[in-house]
Amino acid sequence: MNNRYLAIISLAVTTLLSTPLYAADLDVSDAWVAEAPPMAAVMAGYMTLHNKGKTGIKIFNVSSPEFKSAEIHEMTTDANGMMSMSPIPHLEIKAGKSVTLAPGGYHLMLYGPKTRYKQGDKIAFKFVLSDNTSMEVKAQVRKKVGHAMDHGHMDHEHMQHGDMPMHEGHEQMDHSMHNN
Questions:
Q1: Where are the domains of the chain?
Q2: pLDDT tens, 168-178?
Q3: Which of 95, 119, 139, 152 has the fewest CB atoms found within 10 Å of its own CB?
Q4: How far is CA 69 from the centre of its chain?
């Protein structure tokens, strides 16, 4: 009987040690959230993610206790110069590569802030990775510089989000934009 238990424990330990822990391979740098005007219903988050491992990593979910909900979005421009923004099911960071979340590209959409966040505040996020591990990321609130997209001032009533699930207070959103 003892040999059977020892074999089971040995197998469990071997399995745990051979299971990749992607959070250990994912470096996050320059994480920040754009300061929004008072009463803004939506904010945006940015950062650089570097996969120093030998296996691709996918982020399947993002959450924060500071917001009602959070999603990973991608901003794209079609051949006619029409910009559109939509949620993506996951964000993949290939082995040895980096992905930057920045205005005009991939970014975090942060819905329903629990309070007004000002420059210098810290916001915690939790990412759920493809191996079902999670990691916490802290981002600092910064004032926007340059022409970073201001999600807080967008007219969310008249913007399309395609087939994305609706959030409270965001019925029939359309985030399509035209370059003039």
A1: 2-158
A2: 433 333 333 33
A3: 119
A4: 11
Name which of 40-54, 76-90, 137-151 the model is least confident about: 137-151
The pLDDT tens digits of the residues spanning 55-74 come to 999 999 999 999 999 999 99
Instruction: Name every residue whose Cβ is closer than 8 Å to that of residue 108 and which is 6 or more positions away in sequence.
Output: 33, 44, 45, 46, 62, 70, 71, 72, 73, 101, 125
Question: The domain 2-158 is classified under which CATH number: 1.10.10.10, 3.40.50.10380, 2.60.40.1890, 2.20.28.120?
Answer: 2.60.40.1890
